[in-house]
Amino acid sequence: MRIVQVTAFGGPEVLLVGRAPEPVAGAGQVVIGVSVVDVLFLETQLRTGWGAEFFGQSPPYVPGGGVGGRVVSAGEGVDQGWIGRDVIAMTGDGGYAERVVVPVDALVPVPEGLGVREATALLQIGPAALSLTGAAEIKPGERVLVTAAAGGLGSLLVQLAHAVGAHVVAAARGGRKLDLARELGADTVVDYSEPGWSERVREAAGDGGPLGTAGGDGVDVVFDGAGGRIGQDAFGITSRGGRFFTYGVPGGSFAQIDPGEAERRGVSVRGMEQVQFAPEEGRRLAGLALSEAAAGRIRPVVGQTFPLERAADAHAAIEARDTVGKTLLLI
Predict the structure, then answer these.
(1) The predicted structure's pLDDT at residue 252
(2) Which residues contact 44 (CB under 8 A, 6 or more apart)?
(3) What is the pTM of this model?
């Protein structure tokens, strides 16, 4: 079968198509015939060697932590009724491949009314979005800032915050991304590639009457998917008593927040723990996200797709900040 490997740390060109033996399901396992592979920004960073000391990957390796497709075989002790069903599953790694082996208890069935492509797009961002908005406990009328608002996760957060009646301020880069955020329910859009963007957010947050419980001096909730300097600026306009969630690193690092300042302003700061889950909890939240999408209450944005053999092009597009929503590989 075909696979795509990171053959050395470096640019997108190190992603090369190769061959591997057909996988065989062992006891308690199934083989998925992969039709969709989820691609994360994190995978583009790991490919360069960033984070190797934490994630433990070294070339050659097959990236890809999540896939969707159809169960084609099942090992000993597995209900044969799984064969032929459309599913999504976390793989850990090894997802850039035509077939993968996963434990049967990793499977999340794709509900009727939802395509495998859309389900795979939700596999990793759906649980994260539900966890973040649940922890934020957004109230109607509160001001919510979403950075990287046109990305896969950001686009879900815009929808979920809008659905509960928040005033949503979406920050992203460029007209195409801002138009998408507005389409998804953002009340105000701001281009953070322009100087003074955070002050425009503060002004927008003050429009239309007082803010919510946080005191009227900024935004009540920040979902920071951008990190770096953008995240630090976003923290600066978080209201006293507000809630700040930092989980994104496209800016090169997480937002560096001064704990003393957060304490003085009464801002609760939460990080990656909100988007990391034990397997059972991840599957539960993924199933809930799929149900919400099947019912039409959230819409995963699939902005661009590439065939498996063009994984390098997918990585290049993500790194160029030339993508919206989710990027998927199709087989």
Answers:
(1) 64
(2) 12, 315, 318, 319
(3) 0.92
